[in-house]
Amino acid sequence: MKTRKLVWVPLLALVLLLAAAIWYSRPVTLPDLLGDQAPQQINILVRPLGDQAQEPETSTVSLPLTSPEGAALLEQLQDLSFRRSLADPLIRPLAEAVNASHGSVSYEAGDWMFSLSLTGTDSDFAVLNFTVREWSYAPPGQMELYSCSVPDREAVGRALGEQL
Fold first, then answer.
1. Start-to-end C-alpha separation, the chain
2. pLDDT exceeds cutoff 70 at 107
3. Please, which domain of life does this record's source organism belong to (predicted)?
4. Is residue 140 classed as helix, strand or coil in its secondary structure?
5. Least confidently predicted of 2-6, 115-119, 121-125
6. What is the distance between the alpha carbons of residues 70 and 77, in angstroms, rounded to a whole number?
């Protein structure tokens, strides 16, 4: 009887861990991250990457969702889902413990970084950063970015980048 309990405890722990991993990596959208808050405004930051010799010029735009442009962009963002990386919760604490970066991407001249932040009614915001090849997000109340994946990320990145 006791051996049977010893088998069930690790099996139950494994099932709970698997369920948590599936829940964490499920497809989410920026409005999902805001939870109960109604989106109010989209802030867009655009910055060129890859040319380290020059100080990059940064452009910012704020779109209220009452504007036609803001409403159209929110519609696209609501349709855009991304999956959070399971590696971040595992690698980030280890990298911070040894004071190291857990991955860097080199950029080429002509690459651009886009940052979309969706502000909610409580002035809390969720952020989605992307280049053509790399995507990351920050949930409300956190400034740290976590990597994520987007289906057809290069095509989506180019299309959104051209629109912005």
1. 64
2. no
3. Bacteria
4. coil
5. 2-6
6. 10
Distance, CA of 132 to CA of 156 (rounded, Å):
8
Helix (H, G, I), strand (E, B) or coil at 71: helix
Stronger pLDDT, 29 or 92, i.e. the higher one: 29
Rounded (10°) CA dihedral 84, 85, 90, 96: -80
158: tokens are 């180019």
Instruction: Give the alpha-carbon dihedral of 47, 28, 33, 73, to 10 degrees.
Output: 50
Q: Which tokens hold the place of 108?
A: 């080429």
Residue carrying structure tokens 């109010």 = 40
Token digits of residue 161: 């980048």
Please report which confidence band the pLDDT of residue 102 belongs to, taking 50, 70 and 90 as the band edges.
very low
**Residue 86 one-letter amino acid:** L
Min mean pLDDT across 78-87, 103-112, 144-153 is at 103-112
Rounded Cα distance, 162 and 37, in Å: 29
Which residue pairs from 76-79 have beta carbons closer than 8 angstroms and sit at least 24 positions apart in sequence? 76/160, 76/163, 77/29, 77/30, 77/31, 77/42, 77/116, 77/118, 77/128, 78/29, 78/30, 78/31, 79/29
In the predicted structure, residue 53 carries a pLDDT above the cut 70: no
